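Consider the tokenized backbone below.
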């Protein structure tokens, strides 16, 4: 029987990264050295799988949330979700909420991902009489369908191209559900940094058009890349980011813009923030050879400090090209701005990239927060009280 010793994968054609011209592989050298190591272990590694899904037994009720935040399930909401007329016989201590809060699944098959629904920590507010009273409720946290990660000192979003809704599953059985535990406060010292502001993050991305669909003679598109609002030559567009209270005057506001141009000549976007210039974002002309790219792309991050930012950040874009038939597209916008750490609404989701070294200790001073409770939602499925 033949035994697989090694796998070889190569790309016989490519596009030269400097000239953009297509190139064909004519020859190559390959050397193989047998030996044990990661390659040998790769074939024997097995990913554990659950023997059965948690959904295999019991009654389950599905609910969806559209944004990140803490959600409340009171008696009225549960009656609606469960389709019942009464919660008689429902023990709130045995209520469970399941869901995998990770955004879009990773493309590589080898990347870790949940094998089954995970139970989430929830907070039950009520007494211990095992009856769901009218004034009792359950709180749980969801990061939403779109996720964020820190890159280069700012937050970058990861758009979920498949859904804007995150779904959770509720069940009640004979066992106690997972609850948000209590945690003792950590002792700060005189050298502990005090943080009084946080990074507000927001993005705008509307997947409206697949350029491969527009360019294809068959009318069918391809790929996962979509663009948003379009602008003809000399066109203008304004995208508002509203309801952002307590922005710190004079601090840098970082705007990341990803734009696309379908132009036979060099073109450019001009960007502004609340009327202040963010500069120009140039794009090359699209290639005119066979199998060339159908458009050019540019993604940059610019910043400006506003003396009086207000509560609305308006990003203005204007497009110009030497090609009269050119069309520009907005792919996405991201905002990273500093806000005062002040509880000005029912809830506030905050984070900071200051002093994030391993085992670092910080003191967050949250203003206007008498009686407030703070959750650490670094692990969305298992929030803990911040200490």
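A designed sequence for it:
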């Amino acid at each position: 029987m033949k035994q697989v010793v090694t796998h070889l994968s190569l790309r016989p054609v490519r596009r030269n990264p400097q000239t953009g011209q297509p190139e064909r592989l004519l020859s190559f050298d390959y050397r193989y050295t047998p030996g044990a190591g990661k390659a040998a272990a790769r074939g024997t590694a097995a990913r554990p799988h659950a023997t059965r899904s948690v959904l295999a037994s019991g009654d389950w009720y599905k609910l969806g949330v559209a944004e990140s935040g803490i959600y409340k399930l009171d008696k009225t909401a549960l009656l609606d979700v469960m389709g019942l007329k009464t919660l008689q016989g429902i023990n709130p201590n045995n209520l469970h909420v399941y869901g995998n809060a990770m955004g879009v699944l990773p493309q590589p098959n080898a990347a870790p991902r949940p094998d089954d629904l995970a139970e989430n920590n929830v907070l039950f507010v009520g007494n211990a009489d095992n009856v769901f009273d009218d004034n009792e409720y359950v709180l749980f946290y969801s990061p939403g369908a779109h996720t964020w990660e820190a890159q280069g000192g700012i937050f970058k979003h990861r758009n979920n191209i498949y859904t804007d809704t995150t779904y959770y599953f509720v069940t009640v059985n004979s066992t106690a559900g997972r609850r948000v535990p209590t945690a003792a406060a950590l002792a700060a010292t005189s050298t502990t940094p005090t943080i009084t502001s946080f990074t507000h993050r927001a993005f705008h991305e509307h997947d409206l058009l697949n350029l491969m669909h527009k360019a294809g003679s068959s009318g069918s598109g391809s790929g996962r890349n979509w663009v948003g609002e379009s602008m003809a030559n000399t066109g203008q567009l304004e995208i508002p980011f509203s309801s952002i209270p307590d922005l710190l005057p004079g601090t840098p506001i970082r705007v990341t813009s990803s734009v696309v141009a379908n132009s036979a000549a060099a073109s450019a976007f001009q960007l502004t923030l609340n009327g202040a210039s963010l500069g120009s974002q140039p794009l090359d002309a699209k290639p005119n050879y066979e199998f060339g790219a159908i458009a050019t792309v540019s993604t940059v991050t610019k910043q400006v400090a506003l003396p009086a930012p207000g509560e609305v950040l308006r990003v203005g874009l204007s497009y110009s090209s030497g090609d009269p038939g050119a069309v520009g597209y907005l792919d996405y916008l991201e905002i990273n701005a500093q806000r005062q750490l002040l509880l000005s609404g029912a809830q506030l989701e905050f984070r900071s990239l200051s002093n994030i070294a391993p085992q670092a200790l910080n003191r967050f001073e949250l203003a206007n927060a008498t009686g407030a409770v703070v959750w650490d939602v670094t692990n969305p499925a298992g929030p803990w009280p911040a200490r």
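Helices lie at 38-42, 75-82, 211-215.
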